[in-house]
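INTERNAL AUDIT FORM
Audit reference: QA-55
Scope: verify that the stored structure record matches its stored sequence.
Auditor: D.O.
Record contents follow.
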Amino acid sequence: MSASWQRQLWQRVSTLWWLKALGTTAFMWVFFLFYFELLHDPVFPVTVMPDTWIDRIVAFSPHWVIVYFSLWVYVSLPGALQPDLRGLLWHGVSAFLMCAAGLAFYYWYPTTFDQPRVDWSSQPLGRILQSVDAPGNAFPSMHVAYALFAWAWIRHELLEMRAPRWLHITSLLWCIAIGFSTLATKQHVWWDVLAGIALGLSAGCMAVLATRWRKARLQRQSAPVSLQP
């Protein structure tokens, strides 16, 4: 009988935890080096993304900034749930490819948008966000893309552990809330979110399908060969 999902969860999180923590931190640091370099010094002319009726009906709410920042916890979960070094490296490569695609957009097609004036006086995290993140590098929204990419990986790992349905629902709702927070904090417009959905879902689905294929191939190679008498 397979181990309970709680035991599997602990085993996965505790395996190579120091490497997972260091790797995730280093990965985010390197990404933001390129992100802010392209944000402050775009190579090509910057396109202003138009708003839509969706942007106009979603009201600004400073409280959503907490959910917005929770992305950095959420995107660290797929790496933390990897059961071994090979899975961790495979996840890292897929995350690198998705982020490279997003940075390529920021290089070849830099964008911005008319960010409305908002009041962050009641939310210190919002003032920090406003001070470091200018309205640029918007299309696609990497916040949305990475949230969906992480959701696809988390769903895959939860299915392998046979985790209960409430964990799947919690992960999905968290992902949706992160996506909505990009609109509610006025950090993105709908076109950015839509492009982020396309990038994150396609990258996440391809990564999960690839890792399933890899694991199935390893199982076939390790399966004993029956000898006919």
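Auditor finding: record pair retrieved intact. The chain has a mean pLDDT of 90.
Action required: none
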